Amino acid sequence: MTKQPYMEADSKHEQVLRYIKSLPIGQRISVRTTAQQLEISEGTVYKAFKEAESIGLVSTRKRIGTVRIDRKRRHAVEQLTFGEVAEIVEGTLFGGTDGLHKPLLKFVIGAMELEAMLQYIAEGSLLIVGNRISVHRSALELGAGVLITGGFEPSQEMVELANERGLPILTSRHDTFTVASMINRAMYDRLIKRKIILIEDIVTFSKPADVLHAYDTIHKFHAMVRKTGDSRFPVLDDRKKVVGMMTAKDVIGVPLDYHIEKVMTRQPITIAPNITIAAAAHTMAAEGIDMLPVVDRHRKLLGVITRQEVLDAMRFAGKEPQSGETFEDLMWNGFMAVEEKETATASIIYRGKMTPQMSGTLGMVSEGLLSTLMSLAARRMVKETSKRDFLLESMTTYYIRPIQIDHEISIKPSLLEMSRKFTKLEVEVRDKQGVAAKAMMTAQMIDPY
């Protein structure tokens, strides 16, 4: 007889999640009031709140509390929200909870007369200003949020107006310049992070994955293979947690009436939704697998990701223009490629000048920076010569002697070996005195096909 799963018809945990989903976006909620309303213990509600936060139903922030949100796919979100700004500036919310989820389009510093300021304040903007009540009122009436700096608190009249308009009114102990710098840095970092693709950006969690259950038989596995054309499936227990993996290799010679839990691979490799696609590609290549279950922190299945989907996403990311400069971009500024024709086979070298910002503690060029420059040069050479990219596996660096600030250096990467899956490189750094550093690198190639 086939073993049947035990499933609680409507668990208290699921009741809490369903209740949260029914709330309007922007509503503030708490563990205590939810427990009282549903007549469920606070411990159970607290655990449900934690899961709701992990799947993007609520957001909990200091000085604000827990708020119902609508989580959009990360790559589609370009602006910070007012709630995120409140967290960045260590702000305290006094009113307008319903507006925390709204995007911040721009911020305006209120360091001018009101008439001049009104030209810049618009719906979706945030006014950063001190204790100027008339300015607070005008901003809220024009559809802008208000951030009061210097630790001042808003008047009760402004709190009521913020609640009426659904626009947040916040305070921060920092001065206006510091607050503006903090927000500007966060907006700049957001531009850079948009290019970093995570698993959650490419997995469709709303689409149910093809799965098996521990109580299913081998006959069910073969039926799934015929139905889907796949040969690898996650195995779930009665709580939808991933407990195993079934592949065609696992069923060789196994009778059709055997239960899957007897032959499945236990404790399979899984991946979290907030992991980068590069990390997923590295795991798949290292373990020799073509599909990974995507799970939450309780190992409940959210979806699956295939090797081909990861590689397609990495190729797409490589073609996207970079918005905002990373530290690597800043390091590489000033370097240019030069084709070296003096040797028997033409090769590419990169030349650039060592600036004072590149110095270490002893006034010489930082060893860590040199290591990064060698890695960047190797990657650029591989991209330019083979139109491919790689994931660095190991790098052994030799620092022969220090390099002076303001000296020009040349970085020469050389291919020692390259196959469809792996590559080995040697990188050499020279200044006017000769060889200063070397590195040996091995990396996994990203298959473009």
Describe this structure in words.
By secondary structure, the protein is of the alpha+beta class. The protein folds into four domains: 12-68, Orthogonal Bundle (Arc Repressor Mutant, subunit A); 74-193, Udp-n-acetylmuramoylalanyl-d-glutamate--2,6- Diaminopimelate Ligase, Chain: A, domain 1 (3-Layer(aba) Sandwich); 200-317, Roll (CBS-domain); 327-446, Roll (Thiol Ester Dehydrase, Chain A), CATH 3.10.129.10. It has helices spanning 12-22, 31-38, 42-54, 82-88, 114-117, 133-141, 156-165, 176-193, 199-202, 218-228, 277-287, 307-319, 327-332, 367-386; strands at 28-29, 58-61, 65-68, 92-95, 106-109, 125-129, 145-148, 169-171, 212-213, 232-236, 242-247, 265-266, 291-295, 301-306, 336-340, 347-353, 389-399, 408-418, 422-431, 434-446. The strands form five sheets. It has a six-stranded antiparallel sheet. Strands 4-8-7-6-5 form a five-stranded mixed sheet, with helices on both faces. Strands 9-10-11-12 form a four-stranded mixed sheet. Helix 10 (218-228) links the parallel strand 9 (212-213) and strand 10. Helix 6 (133-141) packs parallel to helix 7 and helix 11 (277-287) crosses helix 12 (307-319). The longest helix has 20 residues, at 367-386. The protein is flat. 29% of the residues are buried.
